[in-house]
Write a structure and sequence with these properties.
The protein has helices spanning 11-40, 119-122, and strands spanning 126-130, 146-149, 155-156, 161-163, 168-189, 192-199, 207-217, 222-227, 234-237, 245-253. The chain is an alpha+beta fold. The chain has a domain at 124-253: Sandwich (Jelly Rolls). Strands 1, 2, 3, 4, 5, 6, 7, 8, 9 and 10 form a 10-stranded antiparallel β-sheet that branches. A hairpin with a 4-residue loop joins strand 3 (155-156) and strand 4 (161-163). Bound molecules: 2-acetamido-2-deoxy-beta-D-glucopyranose and calcium ion. The site of 2-acetamido-2-deoxy-beta-D-glucopyranose (NAG) has 5 residues, from loops.
């Protein structure tokens, strides 16, 4: 084509190029067909000139998997791992041996004065009384109206009886001046004579009769002095300078 390229003025040159282009294209197509035929042919065999190409066979089946290989050699020792979690708390250990006693400490500061206790007042019971006149009546409680001590008022001057407000052990005593007549006197507890005292009066004289006793009293028990017998044994006497007294007090209160 390039060899035919000569100078042709104007429109004629274009027409000639188109014709040549068509001719070249058809020639190329024939050449391609010839090449495909050649590819299908197996290599030529010199000894068998009349041999013809057959149909290609199918691909073979996959083979059976091979056996496992031998174990590999041991690898290198790995790096040390991270520390594990903290375990649970262990059991308490046995008690230690008692240590040696320490030195004596310094004396402490004295404490404050305590409040007054109530018991000291509650457990008080005492009386001491005397005759105010010599006109005592027999067979009834003797009324001692001369008061030496009767802070708790457990002795009743109007009845002549001591009234137990605190159960416990009590001490009682009496000192009687005897004048003009004999004296028979008893100490009573709950309407029962517990203690007896007798003094025989001597004429133109002045006698004393006395007695003392410990008695356990329950709450509400009453104790008093009383003349037993008749008017002949009613020689109790008292004046400004000769007393007849009756005394009692709590020795121990019950603790139960
Ligand atoms: C009482 O005692 C006094 C002595 O202190 C005596 O003088 C007086 O006579 C006594 N009373 C009686 C009634 O004896
Ligand atoms: Ca006597």
């Amino acid at each position: 084509m390039w060899g035919l390229q000569v100078w042709i003025p104007g429109r004629r040159m274009l027409l000639l190029q188109a014709a040549l282009l068509i001719l070249a294209h058809s020639s190329y197509g024939q050449s391609t067909m010839a090449e495909e035929a050649v590819v299908l042919q197996p290599p030529a065999k010199e000894s068998c000139p009349g041999w013809m190409a057959g149909i290609p066979g199918h691909p073979g089946h996959n083979g059976v998997p091979g056996r496992d290989g031998r174990d590999g050699a041991h690898g290198e020792k790995g790096e040390k791992g991270d520390p594990g979690l903290i375990g649970p708390k262990g059991d308490a250990g046995d008690g230690g041996v008692t240590g040696v006693g320490g030195p004596r400490g310094f004396p402490g500061v004295p404490g404050r004065k305590g409040e007054p206790g109530e018991s000291a007042h509650v457990y008080r019971s005492a009386f001491s009384v005397g005759l105010s006149n010599k006109d005592t009546v027999p067979n009834v409680p003797i009324r001692f109206t001369k008061i030496f001590y009767n802070q708790q008022n457990h002795y009743d001057g109007t009845t002549g009886k001591f009234h137990c407000n605190i159960p416990g052990l009590y001490y009682f005593s009496y000192h009687i001046t005897v004048y003009l007549k004999d004296v028979k006197v008893s100490l009573y507890k709950k309407d029962k004579a517990m203690l007896f005292t007798y003094d025989k009066y001597q004429e133109m004289d002045l006698d004393q009769a006395s007695g003392s006793v410990l008695l356990h009293l329950e709450l509400g028990d009453e104790v008093w002095l009383q003349v037993y017998g008749n008017e002949d044994h009613n020689g109790l006497y008292a004046d400004n300078v000769n007393d007849s007294t009756f005394t009692g007090f709590l020795l121990y209160h019950d603790t139960n």
